[in-house]
Amino acid sequence: MRALLLIFAALMLMGQRDAILVPAVSQSEVQVRQGFTGTELLLYGAILDPRGGRAGSDYDIVVVLKGPSEPIRIREKERILGMWMNAESSDFRSAPAFFAVAASRPVDQIVDERTAAIYELGTQFIQLSPTGQIEPEKQARFAAGLVDLRQRKGLYKEDMGGVTISEQVLYQARIGLPSNVTTGQYTAETFAIRDGLVIASAIAEVEVRKVGFERFVELFSQAYALWYGMAAVFLSVSMGWIAGRLFAFI
Fold first, then answer.
1. Domain of 224?
2. Of 44, 65, 25, whose CA–CA distance to 171 is shortest?
């Protein structure tokens, strides 16, 4: 039924000359509760060619899901006198908390490197904004370190071949959100590409937010940061003291 609605909506726009993208997401809101273990988003839609052709036979599809941007500092460790210590660091004004790319085939077979960089069609093309002046080689090194760190945490990922196109009209991709995902507004941007050129793009949004007691803690920490910090310290000290007393009787 949803697929039929997507096609109907696309047909209503057939007067346009460019390709038509009608994207959708299985969940417009992801609720993070206690015990949240992650979830999987289904990003799907329809693509039609106003020339009357079946777009799927001519187009590739790339979906980019990005989480809220946040400032971050990356530190580099060096071995000094036999110990690993913080050395150089670099600050970035905006780095996506989550970044995932799914494509109908490898991006390097779809577009050239310049186009991929413009539209961020891969983890190596994430547009980071360093603060202050930084040498290009150093910036590339720290950017690669950030991507590697978040890839190991499951926050940055690529799935070249993760988009399937059926009946030469409908497409779908599945992207998993891990349990440590950051709350906030997420954007799922879909690109239709033909002959190495982005012919059409469309955006769908997903909100990830905490609910229940987790939401209360989050709001309290933001509104009363001092009291939240004092309560956290008191709770930590109290739990340590209680644990010490219990082990004293064992």
1. 213-250
2. 44
Runs of H (alpha helix) within the chain: 2-11, 113-119, 136-152, 213-223, 225-248
Whether residues 110 and 218 share a domain: the answer is: no
For 175, residues 6+ apart whose C-beta sits below 8 A from its C-beta are 40, 41, 43, 63, 65, 100, 102, 157, 159, 162
Co-location of 34 and 129 in the same domain: yes
CA pair distance 188, 202, nearest whole angstrom: 8
50 and 154 both lie in a single domain:
yes
Per-residue model confidence as pLDDT tens digits over 215-248: 555 555 666 677 667 767 777 777 776 776 666 6
**Domain identity same for 249 and 182:** no
What confidence tier does 12 reach under pLDDT thresholds 50, 70, 90?
Answer: very low
Residues 6+ apart with CB under 8 A from 5: none
CATH number at residue 174: 2.60.40.3880
Q: Is 243 exposed, middle or buried (0-12, 13-18, 19+ CB in 10 A)?
A: exposed
Tally of domains in the chain: 2
Full-model pTM: 0.74
Q: Are residues 189 and 249 in the same domain?
A: no
Judgement on whether residues 217 and 245 belong to the same structural domain of the protein: yes
Alpha helix locations (H) across 166-224?
213-223
CA 95, 157, 148, 183 dihedral sign is: positive
Q: Which of 151, 90, 153 is nearest to 122 (CA)?
A: 151
Check: CB of residue 91 under 8 Å from CB of residue 125.
no
SS (H, E, C) 74-97: EEEEEEECCEEEEEEEEEEEEEEC
